[in-house]
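#onboarding

Welcome to the new folks! Below is a worked example of what a typical request in this channel looks like: someone posts a single protein sequence, and someone else replies with the predicted structure as tokens. Don't worry about understanding the tokens yet, we'll cover that in week two.

Example request:
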Amino acid sequence: MEFGASIFFTDYSISPAELATALEERGFDSLWAAEHSHIPVPRKTPAPGGGELAKRYYDVMDPFVTLTAAAAATKRLKLATGICLVIQRDTIQTAKLVASIDQVSNGRFLFGIGGGWNTEEIESHGTVFATRMQKMREQMEAMKEIWTKSTAEYDGEIVKVPSMMTWPKPVQKPWPPILLGGAFPWAARRAVRYGDGWYPNASSGNPEGADQILPVLDRWAKLIRQLQ
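Example response:
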């Protein structure tokens, strides 16, 4: 069994390099960095799990910056976004960020993604909350084109990438593992459809045990393979 550590890096937390070094020395497998660009004020969306929203949500640093610092301080530790709110990010620029950190870390990046929960934060970036999951799927389909093609293009209903060339390409082929964050069964279905793994969201609750969930995931995966 492999163990990882998850954190909201802030300007008052332990530094990324210090934590990454300590984790690697103790045999941990991975370091996961959270993301929020900002928290709108006022905000109508309730905090996950209820109650007051913790200060770290307002203060968290950009995960690609902190994980790059962690990568420079380590040689074995995997670096992961937990999770990256891709629906708030530019598709082309995010594809370059992912490929770049995978190059800098020599293939140690894990791309944890999710659709988010904070309506006001998401819509501040021009994303329609109701269709954010469709946008996320199209973004990942477009990024796969960018990571694997010399000349890439993508024409979705929401995401458009005109014919273009960009480097670097990721070290990991065909791309760094894409892990869909969220609750069962919704995020798990997305993981089967266009991801490489599922990152369960414990705070949203998964009443079914792993012995019940895993066979369902296996059936979904087999069905998807048959349809492809």
